[in-house]
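Progress against Task 2.4 (sequence-to-structure conversion) is shown through the following example record, which the project officer requested during the mid-term review.
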Amino acid sequence: MKNTCLIVLLFVFSCGKDKVVELPEINQSEISEIKDISAAYLFYDETLPDSLELNRKNLISTTNWLINVDKRLTLKQAIPKIKFLQEKKQKSEHKNENAKNYFTCNDTSKKNLGFVEFTNVVYHNKDFQDYVASNSNLDFSNKMKIDFYASNEIYLEFPLFDITSVLSKENNLLNNIKLILTNELKPVEIILSFNQNLTFQNYISYKLMVSELDLKNVTISNYEFIFN
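Structure tokens generated for the chain above:
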């Protein structure tokens, strides 16, 4: 099972049905090969009530998991299934602590598959303000929040809960972050917050865009928020 392209073909043929996952496209992936794998598929299916079908029959808990999510699915549709798979692996009696989870993507630069790791991502299906209200004992100072809306608007907030927030365009996002944090000497953690109506393609594109940020003392939180 080293050839990941072959896995997709075998799955489609073995099912005897014409099912295709349109993978999210990325410009370049740092990870292009993964060994010891098993795969799950989140299909986009307009004939179903929630337009989603999950196939996880071939998952083996001790392997690296490749989660193939159709790029047309919204986060509202996909994230609950992704969380379900994460919990399934975490609760397995036969765990491999070294096994990781990846989203499979179409790397257009290499015309091959690329992979985005999400092993340690913790998804919160709630607004960030609600999370803060229920965790008032936590320190939220020196955190920047980035809200990605389905309308393609992006808002930056730093320090958190200031009245003023910065509206950014996608092509200026990294520059705007750098301008805001240029004179910040303390470590800053960036928290990503996504509207539930964004497509999975939007989600992957935004995540990778922020990951390209190269600033000293700036990290990206493993906590991600999905808001209405």
